[in-house]
Fold this sequence. Notes:
This protein has about 190 residues and is mainly α. It has a single domain (about 1-70, about 105-189), classed as Clp, N-terminal domain (Double Clp-N motif), CATH 1.10.1780.10. The protein is about 65% helix and about 0% strand.
Amino acid sequence: MFERFTKDARAVVQGAVEQAEARTVDTGHLLLALLEREGSRASFALTAAGAGGAGRDSVRRALAEARRHAGLSRAETDALAGLGIDVSEIVARVEEAHGAGAMSGGGKPGRRWSGHRGFDRDAKRVLEQALRVAVARRDRHIGDEHLLLALTILPGVPAEVLADHGVTHASVTRVLGGGSGEDTGAACA
């Protein structure tokens, strides 16, 4: 599949691998790598949809906060709260015992994994969804904009964080052109 990726899309995947603190690349790493890109279609779409400049820093902070909570989405945190489980309290207790960021999955501070970093199930779903988006848009290659669109379609922390910053599938589709954002997302999901 990677042979169909544009130079920008490959750079995002490589950037996600570099962003990964642990052995596994997740969807947050893909979004962080997209935020690092400049001069690409996804970069343009992020800026036009409201996550440019200071918005990018705000997205990074929101991702870091979600990672601090073991990568749980707001929906997952709310579901646990419905069962009487206070995620913030658990995080506070774990960090009190083991230090700040203990639930972030980053491993020991200052120590990086030098081996191969695979992609977790959700990151693989994003890559597959990017292919579906490209096919639905009748694009020959998978670009970083397709990765961004995939992140806005699939549920999880990146989609929540992006939506909180005004970056939705519909807004990105509008910026990039190509029909109604809802139809493409529904056809691809």
